[in-house]
Amino acid sequence: MPESNDVRMTLNYTLDTSVERYEDLPAIGMAAETPLTYREFYDRIIALAAHLAAEGVKKGDHVALLGENSPNWGTAYLAVVRLGAVAVPILPDLPEADVHHILNEMAVPVLFVTSRQLEKIYELKQKKLRRIITLDDSAAPQDILDVTHFTSYLEEAFAEKEKATDEFVFPEVKEDDLASILYTSGTSGYSKAVMLTHKNLTANAYSAAGMMGIVESGSVFLSVLPMSHTYEFTLGFICPIIMGCKIAYAGKTPTPAILQRLCAHEKPKAMFAVPLIMEKIYKKRVLPQIEKSLFLSFLCRFSFGRKFVYKKIGAKLITFFGGDLQVMGIGGAALNPEVEQFLREAEFPYLIGYGLTESAPILAGGPIGDDTIAVGSTGKPFPGVQIKIVDPDPKTGIGEIFGCGPNIMKGYYEDEESTAETLTEDGWLATGDLGYLDDVGNLHIKGRSKNVIVMANGENVYPEPIEHKLNAYAWVVESLVVENNGKLDAWVYPDYELIDEETQGQSQSERRQHIDKYRESMRQEVNKNLSSASRLTKIVERREPFIKTATHKIKRYLYTGTH
């Protein structure tokens, strides 16, 4: 292992090593388009970094990236950290007010942005911002914003490099230097600015690359999640660079039909997804196949028959993803246990991961091929990470999950109070999640400590497992269990497309009765499998989707009043 604060655990060294090994292999591109090779990608990064430095960007400066995934986003990020500057990736789904807050707090001199995000900065009043570069070469009304196209800026950078008589010398960057400041978009309200060092990110990416040794260099990683989220950044960007793989971007969130077409073209060996993607495919493509066939429904009543049917569907699912898939990482939120049971029995190559932005991000997941990983768990602690359960309940073993390792953040930006609450003096991260470790070391998550509902009889109710039961119903898109005057209610957002199909030609009142019947029968069925304290008093129809984080977790604090 490199000595403390060496350069060998920096993102810069990681890239340099990969370019030496894989320079002619494809590195990065939009799916179904010609990619850049590792050498071409590297040359762009170095030229761009030197040009930014010539314009006054220096070590420690903050540079923001506000845009959807693209090779240019990756080029800009790695050019920023090459200088020892700090990249500030902003989630594309954030509203204008949040974007302004981040850009003002970070006092960025340079912003990389895309056309879909430009209008969020029209009203920005930030005196230090001197250069706005559009990653997709989009223009802006000249009287509102003065922007530079990425392509022309890069051409200038290469021209400068050609003219230079001496090789540009970059500042030395160490592993403990800051690489990124990321604003969490958490489920419990107030957004915090997480400071991640080069080593935080590379340590986690090297662990992932070591675990994914079954995927060879030259293979394709298909990227569908935002790079501005640490889950996709570490596992879907830095990890494939370490492995000499090609990253193919799907563009904006693809529909199943577009995803299928891109997969047929790219034939990915690896990809990372949030549970929502797999849950949608399960509900829309797997369940209907079984329900429409009396024979398959009959077979699925028996364990042997169900496994036979699921295996056949699993093979079709791998074909859907291009036919070569070796690993699909699923994380960012909890996967429905029913969907996971299907994936396990279908022998689909999935892995569950668990982590936080504060841990860059993975704390637990895998290892690949471990038969002792229990369905419903997040697998074993990640290589290099230690996990302990603090203040466990003597009966259940459930307590708060703490993590420790080289991937744990430096702290929250200019927020010593929150840092002290979250990081212990000896480097343990308090996750705020509750869970337990089983006899073979699997971590089981029970939910957020702030989400636990304490009933009048003192019993702790975890809303997440009840929501999983509700979400398993075909007519339910998503749900939220809330406490209401000492009782439990569930708010359910229905699949109106399915309801429309089932009530075609019926009146509005008949349609309403159809949903009411569904609500009551589901409440009774679900209650049969719950303890008396956890039973639902009523199920309320919600007419619009819940507001969610980047990884599709519902922002509970908006609906429950807890922070």
Characterize this entry briefly:
The protein is α/β, with parallel strands linked by helices and 563 residues long.
Helix and strand layout, with pairings?
Elements lengths: L10 H12 L3 E5 L5 E2 H17 L7 E5 L4 H12 L3 E5 L5 H11 L3 E4 L1 H4 L12 E4 L13 E2 H14 L14 E6 L9 E5 H14 L8 E4 L6 H14 L2 E4 L6 H11 L3 E4 L1 H17 L2 H6 L3 H18 L6 E4 L6 H9 L4 E6 L6 E4 L20 E5 L8 E6 L6 E2 L3 H7 L6 E9 L5 E6 L4 E2 L5 E2 L1 H9 L4 E9 L2 E8 L1 H7 L5 H21 L7 E6 L15 H4 L3
Parallel strand pairs: 1-11, 3-4, 3-5, 5-6, 6-7, 10-11, 10-12, 12-13, 13-14, 24-25
Antiparallel strand pairs: 1-2, 8-9, 9-18, 14-15, 16-17, 17-19, 19-20, 21-22, 23-24
Helix pairs in contact: 1-8, 2-3, 2-6, 7-8
Describe the overall structure.
The protein is α/β, with parallel strands linked by helices. 37% of the residues lie in helices and 21% in strands. Among the domains are: 38-198, Rossmann fold, CATH 3.40.50; 373-451, Roll (Luciferase, domain 3), CATH 2.30.38.10; 456-560, ANL, C-terminal domain (GMP Synthetase, Chain A, domain 3, 2-Layer Sandwich).
Q: Please give the radius of gyration in angstroms.
A: 24 Å
Q: What is the CATH third-level topology name of the domain at 38-198?
A: Rossmann fold
- Described by the principal axes of the CA atoms, the overall outline is globular
What percent of residues are in strands? 15-25%
Count of DSSP-assigned helices: 18
Strand order of the largest sheet: 2-1-11-10-12-13-14-15
Number of strands: 25
Question: How much helicity do the residues have?
Answer: 25-40%
Q: Give the distance, in angstroms, between the N- and C-terminal Cα atoms.
A: 41 Å
CATH class bucket of the domain at 38-198: Alpha Beta
The secondary structure category is: alpha/beta
Spans with pLDDT under 50 lasting ≥5 residues? none
Mean pLDDT: 92
Question: Per CATH, which architecture of the domain at 38-198?
Answer: 3-Layer(aba) Sandwich
Largest sheet: 8 strands, mixed
